[in-house]
Amino acid sequence: MHGMPGQNPTTISSPGVVLAFRTPHNDYAANGVGSHPVLKRTNERLLDLADYHLRDGIKMEYQTSRTAVRTALVTGASRGIGSAIATRLALNGIRVAIHFGRSQDDAMQLAAILRSQGAPDPLVVKADVADADAVRDLVMQCEDELDGLDLLVNNAGIYLDSPFDMPNFDEWADTWATVLNTNLMSAVHAVHTVLPGMRERGFGKIINVASRSAFRAETSAPAYAVSKAGMVNLTRCVARAEAVNGIRAYCIAPGWVETAMARDAVAAMHDEIVAQIPMGRIATVQDVAGVAAFLASPDADYLTGITIDVNGGSYLH
User: Fold this and answer.
1) For labelling alongside 55, which of 65, 105, 113, 229 has CA 20 to 30 A away?
2) Are residues 49 and 82 in the same domain?
3) 3-class DSSP state of 184
């Protein structure tokens, strides 16, 4: 098996089986099974799979993608969906930058937990994503400190009422500007900043966290719905423009999710919300994080420009 420069594959052989596990985290590869707990568990799972195939006399070779994600920036990662995504990525062996806007204590606590679990040392970074210059500086800082960004997860967002019948025009316009700058333009600015480095390396992934509202629309919070619809089309535009450079773009569109941002609404309308979901429950942050982990993995390398709905069947389109 031929490896990339600087990569050391771990190869485990048995009669009828050649099992090769390649990882970009070479520091943890030792004595056939990686010493890093995450990689050790992965190798153990692969060995189980090898034993299964042995019964059929099948020769199997497994190796991770030559373009495995090593580093990631997750915006809005101190709580909720962003925290779950950052955790899932980190426990999969990816070094993660945990971005926060105001919740520094939550971000620092998450970083400490990840370190205690043996994840690659996380970076904690602060920025006001509604500020274009701050977003550019955030991405550049992460690229510098992580030696490049393989994955950008645009998750930061806010939900504010912005109905068309708000009586005060200035207040209404300010609300729309705040939501669009925070939810959509922050992603646009981050994408523009991260793309040159990804192009140079010939590889990169971008995951935009949108919402069911992008397709279902909203009456009380149309600015939120418009911002999320913009993220869907941002994903498609990046996918078409950058595929030639080895860059993939994906979108996740959750429905109701049990988060702090949705807590009051869920408490007030729980039964009504659940009644609209064929699967009979509200999503957890882990439901969304699992999809993000899949998209970050080599298994999703031939996908780009897609949106995956995580809504329990509550809205199909």
Assistant:
1) 65
2) no
3) helix
Q: Are 121 and 214 within one domain? A: yes
pTM above 0.85, yes or no: no
Tokens of 294: 């899949």
- Give the total number of structural domains in the chain: 2
Domain holding 265, by residue range, is 71-310
Residue 5 lies in a domain: no
3-state secondary structure of 17: strand
> 23 and 110, same structural domain?
no
With beta carbons less than 8 A apart as the criterion, state whether 78 and 86 touch: no
Tell me which DSSP letter residue 180 carries. Answer: I
Q: Hey, how many other C-beta atoms are within 10 angstroms of the C-beta on 25?
A: 17
Tell me what percent of the residues of the chain surpass a pLDDT of 70. Answer: 79
Active-site residue list? 224
pLDDT digits (tens, 9 = 90+) for 25-66: 433 333 333 445 555 554 555 444 444 444 444 444 444 444
CATH number of domain containing 189: 3.40.50.720
- Packed helices 132-145 and 186-201: angle between N→C axes, nearest 10 degrees: 30
66: in domain:
no
Distance CA 135, CA 190 (A): 6
Is the pLDDT assigned to residue 18 strictly greater than 50? no
